[in-house]
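go over this chain:
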Amino acid sequence: MDVSSHYFELAGALFDPLEPEGGLGFLDGRAPPERIVLTCRHHLRDTAVLSERFGATVHCNELGLHEFEGSDVHVKGFKPGETVAPSVQALQMGGIAPDDTAVLLDVPGGALLFADALMHYEDDVSFVPDSLMSDDPEADKRRMLDSLDALMEREADTLLFAHGDPIVGGGNRVLRDFVSAQRS
């Protein structure tokens, strides 16, 4: 499955980082990242290498910190609702895993970044496959829909995904349509 990572230069933050195939040339002339934010404990990816290279601190929802016990990577916990970087607020997603986090970026029009709850491939927003959920995927989906209800109250013209392509423009409408379709 293709995955995505993001860099928010204003906040000096990498999200769920992967080193690009072509290297880190995209950072040339830009401020280096100061922090790495994992939207889910499973998104460690290239964090160790990038954290060491840039001296960036690593942050994850405190409910996922157990994953890093005994690890060489020092990870600081945050609570949903906290500001984890300038102009970046962590929000609880819930449903698929306790530490699944949505991140709100304070940019014009607003942007939401989703960890594992939602994917966007080939113009289709979807939940992750049932096989990646708990033993009760329908209950997980209900909890995720409840979380999405709360997130839709935020301004989010752009949607970003750890799994999939961004949606630039109309993000709130896309979320409303998705939730409505799932509930019907």
Q: What stands out?
A: The CA atoms of residues 113 and 160 lie 4 Å apart. The chain has one domain: 6-183.
